[in-house]
Amino acid sequence: MRFTSEQRLDDGVIEREFTLGEIPGTLWTPGSAPAPLVLMAHNNGLPKAEPRLVARARYTAARGYAVATIDAAGCGDRPRSAADEQARADLRRAMQVGEPVDEILESFIGPLVENAVLEWQTTLDALLELPEIGGPVGYSGGWAALGIRLAVVEPRIAAAGFFAGGYVPRAQREEARQVTIPLLFLLQWDDEGNPRQRALDLFDAFGSKEKTLHANPGGHTGTPWFELEDGCRFLDRHLK
Amino acid sequence: MRFTSEQRLDDGVIEREFTLGEIPGTLWTPGSAPAPLVLMAHNNGLPKAEPRLVARARYTAARGYAVATIDAAGCGDRPRSAADEQARADLRRAMQVGEPVDEILESFIGPLVENAVLEWQTTLDALLELPEIGGPVGYSGGWAALGIRLAVVEPRIAAAGFFAGGYVPRAQREEARQVTIPLLFLLQWDDEGNPRQRALDLFDAFGSKEKTLHANPGGHTGTPWFELEDGCRFLDRHLK
Q1: CA B239 – CA A225 distance, rounded (Å)
Q2: Which residue of chain A has the CA closest to B211?
Q3: What is the ipTM of this complex?
Q4: Among residues A160, A132, A135, which one has the least CA distance to residue A39?
């Protein structure tokens, strides 16, 4: 893990860019050390520099967490293939016009999840070597399929917050019942890109004894600010 | 309004029993005055002395709210008729064995809601005369039908928390879209006595721009403790 830049923010949070082999990432750490770690992933296709993710990460770090994110293969600063770009465009278009997306989910997103899990585990190994990181690990992210797979295969993850779980490949829908860690499941009630019933079915399927659904009206990007605070309080209950 | 007993609790909260005409009630006030008021109603049929309600009321008062509850007609310390007792028993039995309850809801609960709204409004008038109460008014309660009707007819109520809204008479289901104040809607995902889909449909129907659904696994009385804290934070956002 090689740090390539460092910036101290107003609230004492340090924001550092890093690379780990081919993987570019960002790490936010609070002044106080060592802090519990939150892996913050994004909806597939978006860069780690996306302003909403950065705002969530900075807020969470200011609340006493180390927060890390990475660009998934083919996203953000990483090289992308024409085939991947085409598949992403197909998926976006199908979601926008309300066409079935299950085939693209299976053929395109499925393998991406497998690869992303390996990269996040590599990143986790490296992060846990840092002296400023300690304690249990949480997941917080918009990529529900990745979060489910990570929660199943990665025993170091103690709690997870998921967002927008309407479209998840069959493999992850099926292994949802193997997830047993505490969950906070965030749903935008009128999210045009995430069918409500599928998200409710996924919430129902999780095997966790403690799982909480928070639903609010509005579309995909309309999550109210207080859910950010609620999300941190969920992490506080399980990681602090 | 006549106070008949007074008890000072450990955390500085004062708990007083009162009567207002035929209505017996309890008022909890925090040390600091004047405090915003929370009307805390119960599932129809239960007494105001029910331990879960008392625990919620004391917690909420310790968080800086004046909290009031009353016994509904035919409940708790109030005289009851054989016909009402029979109707309550029929309703409980039908819910336990999963029989349709709509007819009992309409014929029995419907008129009770009308009467309870008048009594709560009378109580509200009297409470707002007290110097230790000031600021906006909230509703928090398990009797969703009462809360809906109050939210529609009573402009002094600025925010409401509802619990277990599966069984609500048709009149209140229909006027749910007239409710426009901020709502927190609490659902027990496996509540044997409150059909999940009906509760989700009710949440969907509310006209409020700010409405949040919190769902947790388990039966009717299994609400996790952190929802009590979340409920107070919801009130904090709208009443303080």
Answers
A1: 18
A2: A216
A3: 0.92
A4: A160
